[in-house]
User: What shape does this take?
Amino acid sequence: MKNRPGDAGRLAGDGTSDDAGHWRAPAAEGPVRARVTVPGSKSMTNRALVLAALADGPGTVTSPLDARDTLLMRHGLAALGCHIDVSEVSRWHVVPGWAGEDALVDVGNAGTVMRFLPPAATLTSVAVAFRGDPRASQRPVGAILAALRELGAVIDDGGRDAVPFTVRGGGGLAGGVVTIDASSSSQLVSGLLLAAPRYDKGVEVRHRGPRAPSAAHIDMTVRMLQAAGAEVEACAQAGTAASGRGHDTWRVHPGVLRPGDVHIEPDLSNALPFLAAALATGGAVTVAGWPAESAQPGEQILGVLTEMGARCDWQAGGLRVTGTGTVHGVTADLADCPEATPVVAALAALADSPSRLTGVAHIRQQETDRLAALATEINALGGDVTELPDGLVVRPRPLQAGGQPFATYDDHRLVMAAAVLGLAVPGIDVGNPATVGKTFPSFTGLWTAMLKGAP
Assistant: This one.
């Protein structure tokens, strides 16, 4: 990252300008011992909202995440004609419907919104314009726009293959077979699958290209579709299963989606910083409600923590992670849990040996170029991080807070990485902490309370 941006005047995670907001990441005075409850999964909440909006009757979403990304999804679905009643904080009521006039969807910088709603917009009979934050125009959506055109959609994007664009709804699509390269984001597959039951022929999505990241999130989409009554088949192209690529073809048959009550699990990616605190301080942290089985990449997250020296035990009503006070370096392919990369990189900077994190080239195209941002900010503390084409090499060195704030690049995961580093490096001043409101508005308060022993 050639230029290290300052935080003044940058767009905060809640969509407002934050000229002077800073947060001093608290240092740990000893082993952290706490029990925390994290909000619901963003990935599950936004999938549940889309499926409920496409169902044949009213439904509910229980224990949803209330954050900027889910607010953008709610507003986007409302623009398409759906009604979502959020008067009950823990139980949202969704009534499907379609817009009768042209609509505008603000995607913000939410990948799920910019990739899940265009396929749904083809079902309307109006023109739906998609706009977003400046960064949104740099995030990959061209593959899903091309796939929708192949299925018969009319989309105007001025040849940019990017936000902004307009979907001219024709009241539905015939559907059929489509080939897509989803190596830049698994959401490109999920977006097509979610709307597929409403297409006349359904959709068969064939991923052809390098390994699609975040396979667990495609599995989540399939499971949630099946729970809503869709008939979905997932299979591997001949020869790819043996190579470890897993499923790369998904077939969704046309049919009715059943409304129901979808319960949202705690967000396991957002729980990771708290578990990392146990490892970094030699303490013990329990995350309440951690599911024994999940469509989220929980198994992969815990596997990486275990390799770094954590002990993971199931307790009554939650998962407990215990650290020894020593963090070990790790060689890890994070392709199946890429959201963990910033926190794992922060832990690696505090480890007793070097780490090599790979499989995450695509996170250069997320909220920011996360690999460049992590290398820049950890090195500014005195670290030794080298970028790889698809990851990072982290060589631990003594760290010290410098004169500049830890820049967060409008990326919620950078705030979390800074918090973990701050446990062992006193005085880290985190710029624009409000950006964490993208998926976890209460993060800094809960983090501070955890260190005080009162989460």
Q: What stands out?
A: The longest strand covers residues 91-95. The chain has a mean pLDDT of 91. The first helix runs from residue 42 to 53.
